[in-house]
Design goal:
The complex is a heterodimer of chains A (272) and B (266).
Chain A lengths: L1 H20 L1 H29 L3 E2 L2 E2 H18 L3 H11 L2 H5 L5 H36 L6 H32 L2 H15 L11 H9 L7 H7 L5 H32 L6
Antiparallel strand pairs in A: 1-2
Helix pairs in contact in A: 1-6, 2-3, 3-6, 4-7, 7-10, 7-11
Chain B lengths: L1 H23 L1 H26 L10 H22 L1 H9 L6 H4 L5 H8 L6 H14 L9 H27 L1 H4 L3 H10 L12 H10 L3 H13 L3 H29 L6
Helix pairs in contact in B: 1-6, 2-7, 3-7, 3-8, 3-12, 4-8, 4-10, 8-10, 8-12, 8-13, 12-13
Classes of the chains: A mainly alpha (272), B mainly alpha (266).
Amino acid sequence: MKRKLKIYLPFINAGIQEVATYRVNWIFYMLGNALACFVSYFIWKAVYSSGGTDTMNGFTMSQMVVYIVLMFLTSTIIASDGAWVVGEEIRDGSIAMRLIKPVSYNATFLFQELGNKLPTEFALAIPMIFAVEVIRTTMSGEIQFSILGLLLYILSCIIAYLINFYFNICFGFIAFAIKYLWGANMMKNCIIGFLSGTVIPLAFLPDALEKLFLFLPFASLNYTPIMIYMGKYTGTELLYYLGLQIFWAFFFFALSKALWKAAVKRLSVQGG
Amino acid sequence: MKKLKSMFKIHRIFIAQEFKRMMEYKGDFIVGIIGFLMIQMSNLLFLWIIFSQIPNLLGWTVNEVVFIYGFSLIPKGIDHFFFDNLWAIGHFTVRKGDFDKYLTRPVNTLFHVLVEKIQIDALGEILTGIALVCITIPKLGANLNIFRILIMIVLIPFITLIYTGIKTITASIAFWTKRSGNIIYMFYMVNDFAKYPATIYNRFVQNIITYIIPFALTSYYPALFILRGENSLFNLGLPVLAAVVLMGFGILVWHKGIRAYESAGS
């Protein structure tokens, strides 16, 4: 374990340095995404004031605001761009450099990305969680913060990130067959956006669809952690959804290994 | 005049070249068009679900909202179709030093960059936009006459220039900073505000999207005129003015940027 850590620590470090180089770029990117949150906020505000009811499908307006902010935070935490990396490396042949090293292919990505994400995540998560609590408290008039909820949310996010990471690696191998990664990625994001509740909370969908989407792996990405933080899942329901998350994480982990084996067999790299 | 003619000729050659390239990778562009179509479908599904819960959105009917949304897609799609290459300038052309090639050619650099590529993916946006406008127009009521529809068509090229102008300005920043892709991205996200009627936003946001980053001029204000015939001078004049000012400023910044440009990369 210690030896393993020593191997992969440099990858984390490289990731941290990478993100430090493009910090300004990252800030603009985040600002752009934050703007999308404001659009959501206004549209929901208009919807609630047009609807004439306080609660829609179990969400009050203040819960909807919390949902939007948490969606922004959760999407950032679990984001993973393995698909691009795999596709690019197969295309330009730099994958060969990873193959000749005695380290796991997936693991090197994982740790590099962790290094990429950790500093930014802390910089983002703490103020955002604080903001969520301020919004919740002022809009409902009572303190709703629960440390257990926060811890479960963090746990759920970690599992969600692993699902996303391995899913994207799988997708990278498949997308490589399509060749046009940009287009394929757009389709993927679009489908996931809907199935994971990013576009609209799954509770707003017709019952049958909601049930189906909740079982699919994509709800495990964003929706489950957010519902856990908001205290919508309790007791056995909570255990069920956490269990489902773990199931999907293992599923995509195994699938990525299988695809990797199949891909390496067919891989031919010209030049270097 | 002769110069203009030669410019058109160059444009034609570039586009022909692009089509050849596209024919080679047919699968790519089908994937791209479907991708953009799906994004539109997802947005429409969102609107549909919302409107199944409420009678109207602060007084806007579903048809009006869909019309505004659809109309906003047409100029956006046209800009995306013809002038997508500016994204590349901001993201990597300058950073990798590839911009040098434009400086060595005997045509205006901005013109060259603009006409060099077309982005077929944008058809997903343009087609959805046209379809939505055509579907909603008959349902919007009788006071919508031919005259207004003609004005709408005339307005589209100007609105397209609002997009191209903003993209030129933000892409030009890369001449100083080497990379401005995410600044373009940020401005594009402001464009999300243009998808819905501006009355759903508060005063502050309304002012920003009207006067500072004027994406509301790309759909909401023209739609006000088309749908309700309101305040034609403001609703039509401002988009045209903004188009001229933004594009003019874009050309200015671009050429200032080129003077500041130092080749990068290897």
